[in-house]
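Look over this one:
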Amino acid sequence: MTRARQGVPIEAVLGAIHVAERAIWARAREMGRAEGVSAERLLDARELYDDWADAVRGRLISAHRATKTPADPRAGSRDAAILRRLLQGGSAAALAVAEAGLPADDGLWVLVARPGFDERALREQPPVVCTIVDDLFVGVLSRAPSVPATAGLAGPAAPDEMAPVRRLALAALITAESTGRTGVVHIADVAWQAALTARADLAAALLDRHRHAWANLGPNAEPVAHAVLAWLESDRDVTVAGGRLFVHPNTVRNRVRRFTEVTGIDPAGTFGAVNAWWLCRTWLREAT
């Protein structure tokens, strides 16, 4: 508690303990060999020591947190510092998890949203660490959250994997925004869309391949692209797609047929559907 009042970060205290432990056990091994102590006996002693040390570390973390929390009203700055250490990975992440009080036995979840995200609903589902990091709202939780706003989600994963998991959560957010999805979107639910969205070079190649098709469609190009997307995203149900676009189902059929004629892509097939979805998304993005 004294170190906490002095402003010494808990990771510095635990890091010093870790260094001391290594020195202690290096000396213990040397003395054990010199005195003829068996490896089994040393291992038993190490296991007993580890149990004791874990209990001490737990009490240190709890005491440090209890001392520091009322003294530091800037929860956002504290969360930012913890999140940055989490995103570093390695031992820094493990110490940050301990300081934040996040139970990591079942893995941690990362949520990413745009600035302006209402964090109150998230903080009502503790334990959670969240704040703005690198112009994005980032939260780390011990369970999958339920919030109404649009956000990307990834996990669960070990504490030292938070950096790649954050990238996945950001990919989920970008994909949700580009496809008009709302709520919390897990990367696993939009995996193939995220993979396509991330490959701008392949999208450019697809666009170049079908540039003449877009020109041949003329003023009907955007309506055709919207119809193909609505049809595919409605599980190829022309009635549902027509309802989304406020057109007759036959209009949807005719536009999908026209798309196939000018591109040579059959969206009724599995792989053709992927190419059709990607091409139409790219067309419409370039048109805006």
